[in-house]
Amino acid sequence: MTTLIISLKFLKKLFFFAGDKDVEVCGVLIGKKIDKKKFKITNIVYDDNPIDPTSFGVTRNTENVYIYVKEIVENSYEDVDYIGEWHSHLFGKCDFSSLDVESIRYIMEDQDYQKPNYLILLIIKFPSQSSAFLFEKKQKFITEMVLKIED
Fold first, then answer.
1. Contact assessment for residue 27 and residue 45, using Cβ atoms and an 8 Å cutoff
2. Does residue 148 lie within any of the structural domains?
3. DSSP 40-103
4. pLDDT, tens digit, for every residue of 101-149?
């Protein structure tokens, strides 16, 4: 069982961002790998200026978010880094799409992201659904993660 730890405060924040909107919203996850099967979100970044948000998709504005990520990582008292992406869904299940897979795989090979060995995709569906998936460079399959919510 692969676990993603998230605070209740952060989860509520994500649902607030997703809110009662008519387009998808997105951002990035900051955190750390605790061990082989356990990850923790220590911060979330909301992209307040995404590219072409629609009710069926959204493209994160990389330049817009990068500044916040760098600041959080540099000023954190913990050893944290960029660990993944999050976005909302308005319709259907809280599951990843083929475009999500393509985007995550692209990021994992992008030199600008320092070619991470793993990335997490967290999907939020207002008002209360969420799911997380682990993408690993050396694995062909995608692992569904168990969300552990902490106070």
1. yes
2. no
3. EEEEEEE-SS-BS--SS--B--HHHHHHHHHHHHHH-SS--EEEEEEEE-SSS-S---HHHHHH
4. 988 888 888 766 677 889 999 999 988 899 999 999 888 899 999 999 9
- Please give the Cα distance from 83 to 119 (Å, whole number): 5
Q: Domain of 84?
A: 3-141
Nearest CA among 149, 29, 143 for reference residue 86 = 29
Contact assessment for residue 124 and residue 130, using Cβ atoms and an 8 Å cutoff: yes
Residue 146 CB coordination number (10 Å): 13
Q: What is the C-alpha separation between 45 and 39, in angstroms, rounded? A: 17
**How many domains in the chain?**
1
